[in-house]
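Record type: monomer structure entry
Structure origin: computed from sequence
Chain ID: A
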Amino acid sequence: MGSQSPNANKKIIHSIEKITRNSFEFICLIGHGGFSKVWKVKWKKTNVIFALKEMSKTRIMDKKCESTILLERDLLAKMNHPFIVNMHFSFQDFNSLYLVMDLITGKDLRYHLAKLKKFSEEQSKFFLACTILGLEYLHYNKILHRDIKPDNLVLDKSGYVKLTDFGISRRMDKLIPGESSGTPGYMAPEVMCGKSHSIDSDYYCLGIMAYEFMKGVRPFLCRSNAELKKKIMENQTVINKLELPDGWGIEAGDFINRLIKRKQSERLGHGGDSEVKNHLWFKGLSWDKLYRRELKAPYIPEEVTNKGINYTVPIDNEMMKRYKQIMNSKEYKTAFKNFLFFNL
């Protein structure tokens, strides 16, 4: 289950298979970011539909994000799990880097939370259980996600949750002392303070998200990060019995309360992933059936039939001059070597 090792069949290829942009039929543009576009594509060889993330090398280097992109790609190359948005190919050409991923059509939980305002206890339990299986797999492989939030959990057409966005994920043995990374409002206190952190920090994020599923809002809404940090460090959020919404049991409140403990040593998950899975709230849930996707999801999203969007990045003269300098540099030719990956 979560303790499985990465897919042994994944490997770097050189001459076995030539993957290029022309290996895919581009159907439509479905998303975009600061230096990327995401396309719905069809691999011509098999007619399988994927999501292809196309990233501009010049923009990446202009923003000095090379190490972040390479780290995410390296992590994805080592992972393969039913509750993660998996990568199948990575390749490059002179202008761009490409990641070919699972295409997930149900949108993220932020979209559905905004639509429904809150989730029911049954829906929340299912979403969180899927997330826990994904986290268990990451943690077994010594990886921290570090940015668990509704935006980074996507629903497939069957209503199952998959983890995505590993941009700030790190191997546990590669954590930088004093580094504070994550999304304010979800970050664990120790992460906000730049202290050492481990898997229980991911579970603090999960607890904040669970609170948001129940209440429709996070525990602390502040105007500034400084104010947010002060409130988190000075106040221990607790859901008491009288605050439980209709349809929610006391086990759910206890689960959330124990996840969002400020002290790591008191937090559910400090003793390992099994500690979270064995909480009374999940009594009766078959983790094996969930892993095999044999349970019926309590919420089935409408499949998004995106007809495509239009998106063009404006480039001024100063930006164009910088980009030309980057493209003519020696580093441009070597920054992304060994980027090629093919999941056989």
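Annotation 1: Residues 5-16 have pLDDT under 50 and may be disordered.
Annotation 2: The first strand starts at residue 10 and ends at 11.
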